[in-house]
Specification:
Rossmann fold; 2 domains; globular; alpha/beta; 13-stranded mixed β-sheet; 13 strands
């Protein structure tokens, strides 16, 4: 697959030059835009940082909109997931991560669209937006942004993996220069690979980790904090980018795991999947199921599977929070500046 990766890399390099030279159009959202993206495909721990930034901006009394592609959603085009007054579509049309944010932050406008500039226009038209956070936006240069944050996994050298399709890298390593801030995720598992790269070392950076800080039990009509989870024998399952890290987090909480099941990232659960989960839990002698918040969003968007699981086992999910272990002041200062500053390409 390497020849295809070289061809892909050439196309991306030419596209980036076209933006650099002003040959491709860049739209201005009319409000400050903070973009959070990554250099590689797959789970780098980007979503928790997006939520951290959303919460930071809400604390500053800003009217926030989240603009995203809505990866692996059932719909196409621009879709208003939440108008800041309530969720308007189901998880299938929204995508799991946008739906999670719409549910978690009821006053936030959430719009999905392949073309971020069009999604931004819809968000602005809601009249409830004076700042946008663009999720997975590093490669989507058609929307001007005030702050470009690039997430890199602290555990593995993103520069070593080939370009898509032979590897996971989306752009040439030189694209790192476009970022205004590097964000190293999973700081508690840092291998220090970034110290071997002068380019990376020369740039402003933060380091953060995320950890499980609560267990929630899911009911047909509500969720509530669970105080009984330490008494449970859990069968864990997930369809996220890094299932092993999910298990590591659970073990760190001393959750009692009797078995687990991994699905591909962004899994759209089918009745067969539900049967596998229930059968696996029974075989391992579990008395409850434990998953991620994103997986609950996907399951609840498919009512039959959701109700079937709840009919067999109590369902819990692990809620997470972000700790910025290095550079918190740098991040806060950049957010403050971009909120009051002028946009850059």
């Amino acid at each position: 697959m390497l020849p295809l990766s070289w061809l892909y890399g050439l196309v991306i390099a030419c596209r980036n030059k076209a933006f650099d030279w002003g040959l491709m159009r860049v739209s201005d959202a009319g409000v400050p835009v903070i973009s959070v993206g990554n250099l590689t495909a797959g789970g780098t721990g980007k979503t928790p940082l997006v939520e951290y930034i959303v919460e930071t901006c809400l604390a500053k009394k800003r009217k926030v909109a989240v603009v995203s592609r809505g990866y692996k959603r059932d719909s196409s085009g621009v879709v208003m997931v939440s108008d800041g007054g309530g969720v308007r579509v189901d998880a299938g049309r929204a995508g799991d991560e946008p739906m999670q944010m719409a549910r978690k932050y009821p006053g936030v406008v959430v719009v999905v669209g392949e073309r971020r500039a069009e999604a931004a226009r819809m968000a602005l038209a809601s009249g409830k937006t004076d700042l946008m956070v663009m999720d997975d936006g590093f490669q989507h240069r058609s929307l001007r942004r005030d702050l470009d944050i690039l997430v890199l996994d602290s555990r593995k050298d993103a520069f070593l993996t080939p370009m898509i399709p032979a590897g996971e890298r989306r752009e040439p390593t030189s694209a790192v220069r476009r970022a205004r801030l590097l964000a190293f995720s999973r700081a508690d598992q840092d291998t220090g690979w970034w110290k071997d790269h002068p380019l990376v070392m020369s740039m402003p950076a933060i380091h953060y980790r995320y950890r499980v800080d609560r267990m929630m039990r899911v009911f047909p009509d509500r969720e509530q904090a669970a105080g009984d989870w330490r008494e449970r024998q859990f069968f864990a399952f997930s369809g996220i980018g890094d299932h092993e890290d999910f298990l590591r987090q659970l073990r760190g909480m001393q959750a009692r795991l009797v078995g687990d099941l991994r699905f591909p990232d962004h899994r759209k659960y089918s009745p067969r999947d539900v049967t596998k989960i229930v059968t696996g839990a029974r075989k391992k002698g579990a008395d409850a199921l434990l998953t991620t918040e994103k997986d609950v969003v996907r399951l609840s968007g498919r009512v039959a599977g959701f109700e079937e699981i709840l009919g067999h086992f109590p369902l819990y999910y692990a809620g997470i929070t972000v700790d910025v272990t290095q550079g918190r002041e740098v991040l806060q200062a950049m957010i403050d500046r971009c909120v009051g500053g002028s946009a850059v390409q």
